[in-house]
Design goal:
223 residues; 5 helices; five-stranded mixed β-sheet
Length: 223
């Protein structure tokens, strides 16, 4: 890194790296991960896990996740993919399953490498993947069990055409737009088919004007 205040490139960790003091190890990165990131059913970590699952399905997990990038996944010579997640069951006590709501808010852009901002509010991906952890039995809830997930794939242009500046969408409305439901095994095919629909349509992504707001996410949704 030549710029003393430039971006700090992430390093892929193995988990074996020690926390150290004067040459003495005090725990490991793996221990930190287990301590901080074992609650995979919670909103924040479930969202990151959903991104990883989609990256695995698309063969894109070799690249490291970039926090606050303008899209979640960038496939070489392929589509830009935005990943959203929601679940009926949360890690807190519930009186009923959560209503499903996904964030679809157009947003300003930001380049994590240069720190440059783009104030134009729009949806910057080619395809959205809405990941629903649809399991309904808390004792057997396991976000690592891929059959407990359903994936709904939609070209971004459909959201732009029909939802404009809307910030959230429910499951019924998503299905009404023609989102393709799939499992993990067929997710890659569905994503590339949706991207192909975008290319054949020739419809540019819409630009949605207005002040940006940042409300708390719905209870069943994450980033």
């Amino acid at each position: 890194m030549t710029d003393p205040l430039g971006a700090v490139p992430p390093l892929r960790r193995t988990g074996d790296e020690p926390l150290h003091l004067h040459g003495t190890a005090h725990g490991t990165v793996l221990g930190f991960w287990a301590w901080a990131y074992s609650g995979l059913a919670g909103n924040t970590l479930r969202g990151a896990l959903a991104e990883y699952i989609v990256a695995l399905a698309l063969g894109a997990a070799g690249e490291l996740r970039v926090d606050w990038d303008t899209v979640d996944l960038r496939l070489p010579d392929g589509p830009r993919v935005e990943v959203k997640s929601a679940a009926y069951l949360q890690d807190w006590a519930q009186s009923r399953p959560s209503a499903i709501s996904f964030s679809i808010a157009p947003a300003e852009g930001w380049d994590p490498v240069t720190g440059a901002a783009d104030p134009e509010r729009l949806r910057r991906s080619d395809v959205y993947v809405f990941c629903l952890l649809e399991h309904l039995d808390k004792p057997t809830l396991d976000p690592l069990d891929l059959p407990q997930w359903a994936f709904h794939v939609l070209p971004t242009r459909v959201l732009d055409e029909h939802k404009g500046g809307r910030r959230t969408i429910g499951l019924a409305a998503l299905l009404a737009l023609g989102a393709v439901r799939t499992g993990f095994d067929d997710l890659r095919t569905a994503v590339f088919a949706a991207a192909d629909r975008c290319e054949r349509s020739g419809v540019p992504r819409s630009r949605v004007n207005g002040p940006r707001r940042s409300p708390a996410p719905p209870a069943g949704s994450t980033r």
